[in-house]
Amino acid sequence: MASLQPFTGVMGNRLAAHLLRRTSYRPTRERILYYASLTPQEAINELFNFAPLTRDEPIDPNTGQPWMDIPNDEIETADFWLTRFILSWWSDEAVKDNSAGHKIEFFLHTLIPVNAAQYNKFVFDHIRLLRFYALDGDFKALALKTITDQNMLFYLDNQLNSKFSVNENYAREYLELHTILKGPEDGPGSYTNYTEEDVSTAARLLTGFRVNWDRIVIDPDTGIPRGDTDLYTHDTDDKTFSDKFQNRTIVGRTTEEEMYDELADFVDMIFDQRATAENLCRRAYRFFVSPNITTEIENDIIQPLTDQIYNDTNSPDYYNLNAVLKTLLQSQHFFDKDDNNDSDEIVGALVKSPYEIFLNIMAIFDIIPPEPVDAASQEIHYLDFYTPHLNNSLQTAGMEFYYPETVAGYPAYHQEPNLSRNWFVTANIIGRFRVPEMLLKGKYLGSGGYLYGNSNVPFNIAEFARDYDFFTDPSDAILLVDEFLQFLLPELTDDARKAYFQQVFLDDLSPINWMFEWQNYIETDDDSAVRIALENLYIAVLYSEEFQLK
After folding, report:
1. Are the beta carbons of 323 and 49 closer than 8 angstroms?
2. b vs e for 404-430, b when ≥16 Cβ sit within 10 Å of the residue's Cβ?
3. How far is CA 259 from the centre of its chain?
């Protein structure tokens, strides 16, 4: 029986690594060893003590300054580049974040996906909005605020939605993708959770909300710029929904200020439906735990979590995503401790995204670009490293960060039955497997997995083995391989697999000869022999099937 009862034991290395891979982008050896001595309850308290940002906003390396408060007509850098600098800034914050904050932010991005190919300041405000509610946890409030989020208004064509010419795009995606989901068809123009007529009615309700290019309309709750209202194009008539929503009538408002009240009534109606809470819990389960929701999981995990966030509207847990995650991430089920086999269901059940592989390797091996504190470091940070990797290299590997393929988002987070296995696509498989080598060699990743250029962020794995305390004793070949596997793979390997990696590492050397090679490196600083062996091990392990999983 799947159980949400807390697992109260000390985690140890394996389960600490499991928790860190699922909740952050920093499953480093140092953090694994620290969390190994904690119980899940202690660990969750630390992970949900959200870390502050190291920088509140990105810098334009062309000027050496942030630009969010600069008037648009005074900004010379092209919008395309400024958007890339924003995504670079987010990624740099994510790889340094020891809390669960950025992983939760990205989860919210998968729930309410947008494309970053909009006005750069709208992208920045959208990211700030996700962060605000990742830390706060109130998913219902986020669902209300995203309706007037300018990136979303622009992305889903609500600019074109007027009582004179209704555009259903935003209303459809809001119901079908962001909140309640439609469920199976149960009649002509009717689904389990809403009807086509409900989409049309919702579209009428959303008329008259527009972007404000000057970002001067500020949301009173978040302090973040939001869209504007245009009463002239808003449908002020009452809106009556189908029996899927208990034939609820939302009173049409007749002032611009009251248009926001109409939105709040609309969101209340959707979140009054249990199906909305169930959807949130199922998607959290699939993102953080496992893609497989069996009848047992539905009954023993999803429904109790739904009860927690839905049954009591006065509870602080009401539609609080972080309440769901705290219950789930310290449960016996999450650690696979609710049956007789603790290695058959959860640990290693998800495929990493290319973005996770990229950030994990950066964090584990400390392949971090210099802090953008002057012109030279800003150029390397933004222009040489992050922007080419996020825009080109990861696209080749199968995931252009913040540019999902469709309005539904990245297939790995919604497209059943494969879900996270959708990261393995024939066209991208070579690129995916070359991400580790790309970072090892300080290159970029081109079409077909071709490595080229220079990212100006060098990585010397011999120096890493010598200086970073990743290995207890780098001169001990057997121990070195054991520790490499222990901290990089989700499950311990069997003896045959371990022997394979030892053979890759040692090649024709004996363990005693490796010890002599290592001692020679320490004494002479000549890394020619040890570096080849370490690079071979790095490539073999990070190319392995096991490393693709978390």
Report:
1. no
2. beebebbbbbbeeeebbebbeeeebee
3. 33
DSSP readout, 261-282?
Answer: HHHHHHHHHHHTSHHHHHHHHH
* Model confidence pLDDT, tens digit, residues 34-72: 999 999 999 999 999 998 999 999 999 999 999 999 999
**Residue whose C-alpha is closest to residue 75's, from 66, 87, 86:** 66
3-class SS of residue 500: helix
> Which pair of structure tokens corresponds to residue 427?
């066209």
Q: Helix (H, G, I), strand (E, B), or coil: what is residue 225?
A: strand
Per-residue pLDDT, 342: 66
The amino acid sitting at 23 is: T
Output DSSP code: residue 320.
Answer: B
Q: Are 542 and 436 in contact (CB under 8 A)?
A: yes
Tokens 């962001």 sit at which residue? Answer: 178
Q: Compute how many other C-beta atoms are within 10 angstroms of the C-beta atom of residue 157.
A: 13
Containing 191, the helix (H) or strand (E) segment is strand 190-191
Distance CA 446, CA 145 (A): 38
What is the per-residue pLDDT for 297?
97
- DSSP secondary structure string, 323-365? HHHHHHHTBTTTTT-SSS-TTSSSTT-SBPPHHHHHHHHHHHH
Strands (E), 416-509: 444-445, 451-452
**Contacts with 364 (C-beta within 8 Å, 6 or more apart), sequence order:** 27, 28, 29, 487, 488
Question: Rounded distance, CA 549 to CA 349, Å?
Answer: 7
539: tokens are 């490539």
Separation of alpha carbons 157 and 162, rounded Å: 11
What is 49-97 written as a DSSP string? Answer: SPPPPS-SS--BTTTTB--TTS-GGG--S-HHHHHHHHHHHHHHHHHH-
Q: Is the pLDDT of residue 447 over 90?
A: no
Q: What pairs with residue 65 in β-bridges?
A: 60
For residue 331, what are the β-bridge partners? 6
Total residues found in the chain within this entry: 550
Per-residue pLDDT tens over the stretch 15-30: 999 999 999 999 999 9
Compute the C-alpha angle 474/463/392, nearest 5°.
120
Question: What whole-number distance in Å separates Cα of residue 115 and Cα of residue 151?
Answer: 8
Contacts of 282 (CB under 8 A, 6+ apart): 293, 302
Residues of the chain with pLDDT > 70: what percent?
99
For the chain, the first-to-last Cα distance in angstroms comes to 23
Q: Is 485 left (phi over 0), alpha (psi -120 to 50) or beta?
A: alpha
> If 0-12 CB within 10 Å is exposed, 13-18 middle and 19+ buried, where does residue 96 land?
middle
Q: Is residue 359 predicted with pLDDT exceeding 80?
A: yes
Residue entry with tokens 């979590």: 305
Q: Exposure string (b/e) for 292-320, b if CB count within 10 Å is 16 or more?
A: ebeeebbebbbbebbebbbeeeeeebbbb
Secondary structure (DSSP) of 379-441: IIIIIIIIHHIIIIIHHHTT--TT--SBTTB-GGGTSTTTGGGGG--TTTHHHHHTHHHHHHH
**Residue 257 pLDDT > 70:** yes
